[in-house]
Amino acid sequence: MARKKKSEPEAAEQDTSQEGGAQPGETTAEEAAQPAQEAPKAEAAQAEEAPAQEVALEEAAKAAEAPQPDAPQAQAPQAEAPQEEASKPEAAQADAPQPELAQADEEASAEPSEEPAGVPASVTADTSEGEEDATEETAERPARAKPSVPGAHLEVDIVPEGVDPLGGSEEYEDPYAIEEDDRTPAETEEEAEEAEEVLTQPIASAAIDLAAGARYRATGKRKTAIARVTLRPGDGSYLINGRTLEEHFPRITLQRNIRQPLETVGYHERMDVLARLHGGGISAQAGALRHGVSRALLEADPNLRGELKRRGFLTRDSRAKERKKAGLKKARKRPQFSKR
To answer: Quick one: which H or E segment has residue 276?
Structure first.
């Protein structure tokens, strides 16, 4: 193949490199002289830029002082940037330690100071005046007295028994006071007997027609016993279910209870009693018979109602045996409880 011919410039460069004998990695004289030539050029460029920076700072100061519209506000940070760069060397100079100030600080630290560091004189003067005022107030203030017991000055308002709490001269009687019974048991028994005698005394105002054919009928009740009673003129005999009073009611207390209504009226010897009893027991039948005789007397003379009622002869005795409940032995009696 035919070789390409080299151009004239390339051939010249190759010749020069061969003549100088330069090898790769070695600096030539021309390359070493280039930095020395560039240094004066850089100093000249800095000298030319310094007046331009001063002019830019003056223009930025004038622009900051002059009122600007809202639109060019975005240009303000660009103008402030050179000012900040100029202030940096000044701040560096201020931060640098100065020998004169260092000597003055050493002298001030060597001299003893009466006032504390960092506290102004006005503040110390105010504190001293406040301390003087506080001492004067404590000197003028009297000593604190010990507190007395609350209510010690009050008088006792307990009123003795029998004395009027309002201060009257008359004897005071408490309406809610419980009267004590100073009577002996014998006196109370005597009063009870007197009350019974009053109740058993005959009623003098009784006026009953005792004609031969007079009949006064009524019905008395007690528990489950019912007594149909008929009163007629007679000698005071009792015929109960075809039997006498003593035969049907052998207990004397029951006989006395049955005779009470006629004895109270005073006709126990002038009227006979005929009765038919059924239901209940002996005590219940005796109460039913007395109730029937009292109501029959009321049929004979209605004016006897007040006296008979006051003695309790017309009141039907409502007492009865309570019914047995499921699960219990009687009305209230329970089986014995066993825990185990």
So the answer is: strand 271-278
91 residue type, one letter: A
pLDDT tens track for 42-82: 666 665 666 667 777 777 777 766 555 444 443 444 444 44
Please state, as a whole number, how many other Cβ atoms lie within 10 Å of the Cβ of residue 218. Answer: 19
Which of 308-329 are b and which e, b meaning 16 or more Cβ less than 10 Å from the residue's Cβ?
beebebbeeeeeeeeeeeeeee
Q: 156 to each of 152, 153, 159, 163, how far by Cα in Å?
A: 10, 10, 9, 15
Domains in the chain, CATH or no CATH each:
214-311 (3.30.230.10)
Q: Which residues have CB under 8 Å from 82's CB, separation 6+?
A: 53, 56, 57, 60
State the pTM of this model: 0.45
Residue type for position 32: A
Angle at 307 between CA 301 and CA 309, to 5 degrees: 100
> Is 262 within 8 Å of 297 (Cβ atoms)?
yes
Q: How confident is the model at residue 37 (pLDDT cuts 50, 70, 90)?
A: low
How many other C-beta atoms are found inside a 10 Å radius of the C-beta of residue 284? 22
Angle between helices 29-65 and 76-95 (to 10 degrees): 110
Rounded distance between C-alpha atoms, residue 83 and residue 57, angstroms: 6
